[in-house]
Design brief:
NUDIX_hydrolase-like_dom_sf; eight-stranded mixed sheet; alpha+beta; NUDIX domain-containing protein; Nucleoside Triphosphate Pyrophosphohydrolase
Length: 154
């Protein structure tokens, strides 16, 4: 069993965050754009590729804000995620000027049905994964100090 690295973009503008909108049997859920690192690929190369695939835009990558682990056997979806161990790296990102309205994903995830700008203060009313990320995003956006390592959260 391997540990999978995933790299995520936190694209925040005017107190809103850009999220992928996805759908499953429970309804809509939201994720930060990004995905799995491929062998031989750097974190930045992964994030650039994933943003083109999922949002159709290039991004400027800033600082690393959060690291989150997900050990599937420890969480609510253990019945089908038992063998999953993923480490996610969340970077502050900005859309490249001129591409802000060109949201044409080239290879969206299988559950992805769109993109949505969500107001940071309204995150609590959205099914965002990881769920615990909501409070850290709200703290970060209000200027509070946040930990970088968030632990094994969902």
């Amino acid at each position: 069993m391997q540990i999978r690295n995933s790299v995520k973009a936190l694209i925040i503008e005017d107190d809103k965050i850009l999220l992928t909108k996805n759908q499953d049997v429970e309804g809509n859920f939201y994720l930060c754009p990004g995905g799995g690192q491929e062998h031989g690929e750097t974190f930045h190369a992964t994030l650039l590729r994933e943003c083109i695939e999922e949002i159709g835009c290039s991004v400027e990558i800033g600082e690393l804000l959060f690291i989150r682990e997900y050990v599937g056997k420890n969480h609510e979806y253990a019945s089908f995620d038992f063998n999953v161990h993923q480490v996610e790296f969340y970077f502050a990102c900005q859309l490249i000027l001129g591409e802000k309205t060109n949201f044409q994903p080239t290879n969206p995830d299988s559950h992805q049905i769109g993109l949505e700008w969500v107001t940071i203060k309204d995150l609590s009313s959205f099914r965002l994964y990881p769920k615990e990320l909501k409070k850290y995003l709200q703290q970060y956006c209000s200027g509070q100090v946040t930990p970088i390592y968030l632990g094994d959260i969902n």
